[in-house]
Amino acid sequence: MTDPTIGRLRVSGATLHYEVRGRGPLLLLIPGGTGGAASFDGIADELAATYTVAAYDPRGLSRSPLDDPGAEQRVAEHAEDAFRLLELLSPGEPARVFGSSSGAIAALHLLTAHPERVERVVAHEPPVVEVLPDTSEHRALIARVQETFRTQGLMPAMAVFAAGLKKDDDTAEPAPAPELPPEAAARAEQTLAGLPFFISRIVPAFMSYVPDLDRLASLSDRLVLACGQDSRGELPYRPAALMAERFGTELRHFPGGHVGLNTHSVGFGEALKKALLA
């Protein structure tokens, strides 16, 4: 794997760690969950053959500390961080952007707020549950997760959260976790360290976000909505499927499920390259 060029960018209330590889037009990668720039290690080199690939740790996670560790998180602020990176790394030139999960929510807001800076956005399973007809159930889930975290702690809260993401009719015992490539398994410690911030700050802020569907529809020629081929029926799959149907656009399917980036990195990278050119 090629060693990236490392940078630090001061933004409002935080300092962002970012990494750059390759040459060509800019491709900004926005991670989801507790992932940082390292979550793209499995695909970054392949993409860097075509693009200048930039990835970063979102504010509050890993190597991007907040000035105020207790600061509330907002989707608009995270999207503005991405915009600042575009301004730094691709001044005056529209860029391509990929985001997964919560990172895909930030990418959607970036597209609506700064469309002139974005040539194409690929959004993989953005859990914008406010667009769903049963959104009240998901608001209740988020409230249960927060209450469980407050009263019982991290792992019980994560269990409630994970159960709420499953298929509505899925009552089976959970399948064994897929075996991760060594580089993904090595990030487990970082993932665990970021979970309290994720469950208490990112989940409530991002899953209560209401996207501007009319504006996204008007920009849908620059938007590729994607889901994991193994995710059908799960909560993170449904908003992208609904938006693709509403916008009259194709819903792309990438290998694996919600975390296919980690479990099926080679196929995921190939699918992403095709989506960026669509």
Write the SSE topology.
Blueprint: E1 5-11, E2 14-21, E3 26-30, H1 41-47, E4 52-56, H2 75-89, E5 95-100, H3 102-113, E6 118-124, H4 135-152, H5 154-165, H6 182-185, H7 188-206, H8 213-218, E7 223-228, H9 237-247, E8 251-254, H10 260-263, H11 265-277
Parallel strand pairs: 3-4, 3-5, 5-6, 6-7, 7-8
Antiparallel strand pairs: 1-2, 2-4
**What amount of the residues lies in strands?**
15-25%
Radius of gyration: 17 Å
Largest sheet: 8 strands, mixed
CATH homology group: Alpha/Beta hydrolase fold, catalytic domain
Q: What's the CATH C level?
A: Alpha Beta
Order of helices and strands: EEEHEHEHEHHHHHEHEHH
Extended strand count: 8
Distance between the termini: 27 Å
Low-confidence segments, given as residue ranges, are: 171-178
| CATH architecture descriptor text | 3-Layer(aba) Sandwich
Overall tally of structural domains = 1
Describe the strand arrangement of the main beta sheet, using strand numbers.
1-2-4-3-5-6-7-8
Question: If you had to describe this structure to a student in words, what would you say it looks like?
Answer:
Keywords: Hydrolase. One of its GO terms (molecular function) is hydrolase activity. The protein is globular. The longest helix has 19 residues. An 8-stranded mixed beta sheet has the order 1-2-4-3-5-6-7-8, with helices on both faces. It has a single domain, classed as Rossmann fold. About 3% of the residues have low confidence. Helix 1 crosses helix 11, helix 2 crosses helix 3 and helix 4 runs antiparallel to helix 5. It is α/β, with parallel strands linked by helices.
